[in-house]
Inverse folding.
């Protein structure tokens, strides 16, 4: 799943470690989510949304192909 | 940029692959000498056990790498401590049991005890894994550990099935079933240490 985590993080000038500390997860987790290698669970996705003060849909984006199929 | 350079430099220091390779090569050499009969009696077991001391630098470098990759958590630290303690116990018990068993009366209660003892230490390692999966609050690290355990399991099942048929068809000699735990642990290690695409810790 695509996401805007890296951009949002850059806008706030947070390092991966800083975001990881705010989310209470490892930096490796932030890296895995950011690079699209791991999709977070709903609770973690809500936590990420809360940290950025945004809606989940404003952070995580549906794949274009998936959207087209609907 | 300084942080990034220092990060890369540190990463270059932790090389668990070297220790894992050395450990594997030794196991292969001892196994060949054992199977061909060049080593007899307790000698191969003592060599296998001595080879386990290589796990100390291997484990240390794996911890370093976990720290450097930002993959460390409180649950992982507890797991590392528990798993390492039980592997050390396994090593000591295995060495003691294989050195003592032929000095005891055949089939006696002591021999039963010596034979069961390494399995108890192995149970401790599995318990450490179970506790880790229960305690790990980081869902990504938990998922990684589960995948690594599956890699270990797959490794053991494929190797065991393959060897079983080779043995049935008289192509390879018989090997004892206690190899499953080290084989699983090697698979687990491969699963845990597989390289990560790390975008680096820059904003």
């Amino acid at each position: 799943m695509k996401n805007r985590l890296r951009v949002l993080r850059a806008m706030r000038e947070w390092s991966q470690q800083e975001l990881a500390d705010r989310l209470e997860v490892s930096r490796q987790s932030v890296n895995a989510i950011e690079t699209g290698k791991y999709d977070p669970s709903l609770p973690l996705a809500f936590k990420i949304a809360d940290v950025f003060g945004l809606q989940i849909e404003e952070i995580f984006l549906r794949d274009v192909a998936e959207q087209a199929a609907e | 940029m300084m942080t990034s350079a220092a990060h890369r430099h540190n990463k270059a220091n932790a090389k668990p692959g070297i220790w894992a390779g050395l450990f594997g090569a030794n196991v292969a050499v001892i196994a060949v000498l054992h199977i061909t009969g060049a080593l007899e009696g307790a000698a191969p077991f003592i060599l296998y056990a001595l080879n386990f001391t290589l796990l100390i630098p291997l484990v240390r470098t794996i911890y370093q790498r976990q720290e450097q990759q930002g993959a460390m958590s409180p649950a992982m630290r507890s797991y590392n401590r528990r798993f390492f303690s039980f592997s050390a116990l396994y090593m000591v018990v295995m060495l003691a049991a294989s050195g003592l068993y032929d000095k005891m009366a055949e089939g006696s209660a002591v021999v039963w005890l010596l034979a069961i003892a390494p399995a108890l230490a192995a149970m401790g390692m599995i318990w450490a894994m179970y506790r880790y999966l229960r305690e790990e609050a980081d869902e990504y690290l938990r998922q990684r550990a589960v995948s690594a355990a599956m890699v270990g399991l797959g490794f053991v099942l494929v190797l065991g099935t393959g060897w079983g048929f080779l043995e049935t068809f008289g192509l390879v000699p018989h090997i004892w079933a206690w190899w499953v735990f080290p084989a699983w642990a090697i698979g687990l290690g491969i699963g845990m240490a597989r390289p990560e695409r790390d975008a680096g810790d820059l904003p």
Remarks:
- The two ends of chain B are 11 Å apart (CA to CA).
- Residues 139-168 of chain B form the longest helix (30 residues).
- Helices of chain B lie at 2-13, 16-35, 43-51, 55-68, 74-100, 109-135, 139-168, 180-193.
